[in-house]
Specification:
By secondary structure, this protein is α+β, with helices and mostly antiparallel strands. Helix content is 47%, strand content 9%. The radius of gyration is 17 Å and the shape is globular. It has a five-stranded mixed sheet, covered by helices on one side. It has two domains: 2-80 and 193-203, 3-Layer(aba) Sandwich (Glutaredoxin); 89-191, Glutathione S-transferase Yfyf (Class Pi), Chain A, domain 2 (Up-down Bundle). The structure holds glutathione. It comes from Azospirillum endophyticum. It is an enzyme of class 2 (transferase). Residues 87-204 form the GST C-terminal domain. This is Glutathione transferase GstA. Its EC number is 2.5.1.18.
Length: 204
């Protein structure tokens, strides 16, 4: 498999999952602004959406959308415990989380990124920050009394939530009202697979 990624972007989530799963893969860095690969070729020829993550599959073809990609990887390594079996209520719980993280948190942070400051009004930024705070409070509550979002076992939802939380310092978002999120982010950051993913992305 080949993971198309940008350092620190949402592609960090499937990158972590690949390492947690212990599966072989290659990393391909994307210049998202130019939509090019290192050899100058057009990334949109790989993924017409022009977005990371994108996963080139061993059986051929490209899988896009982070929530689908992490489930695909985890299902390739069922012994990793990264995702419950398909069809169980526990699986739907993880899918519920992935969707919440993707649609409410991931896309909720974007308007607050400093690089978009000129494109987003102050009024909208204030509103977006308020909404994001409310959604983070829900995630904080979900973690009450648990090490990870679904309990004591690290799942693909944790990799995605951790990735989005890792952006909060960039938008100067104060996590102190959410002690469970802070402890969770530190717990996930300490996992060897996560440290290895950060190290590999820093090397480029
Ligand atoms: N719906 C996609 C969104 C992926 C996404 O937003 N990727 C960002 C990086 S975190 C990106 O590629 N941005 C560049 C662009 O949209 O042109 C998913 O969940 O995988």
């Amino acid at each position: 498999m080949k993971l198309y990624y940008k350092p620190g972007a949402c592609s960090l989530s499937p990158h972590i999952v690949l390492r947690e799963a212990g599966l072989p893969f290659d990393l391909v860095k994307v210049d998202l602004a130019a939509k090019t690969l290192a050899d100058g070729s057009d990334f949109r020829a790989v993924n017409p959406k022009g977005q990371v993550p994108a996963l080139a599959l061993d059986e051929g073809g490209i899988l896009t959308e982070g929530a689908a990609i992490v489930q695909y990887i985890a299902d390739k390594a069922p012994e990793s415990g990264l995702i419950p079996a398909a069809g169980t209520i526990e699986r739907y719980r993880v899918q519920e989380l992935l969707n919440f993280i993707g649609s409410e948190l991931h896309k909720g942070v974007v308007p607050l990124f400093p690089m978009l400051k000129d494109k987003v009004s102050d009024t909208y930024r204030e509103f977006a920050a308020q909404v994001l705070g409310a959604k983070l409070a829900i995630l904080n509550q979900q973690l009450e009394g648990k090490s990870y979002l679904t309990g004591e076992v690290f799942s693909v939802a944790d990799a995605y939530a951790y990735t989005v939380l890792s952006w909060l310092p960039r938008i100067s978002f104060d996590l102190s009202p959410f002690p469970n999120l802070k402890a969770f982010a530190e717990r996930v950051a300490a996992r060897p697979a996560v440290q290895a993913a950060h190290a590999a992305e820093a090397q480029g």
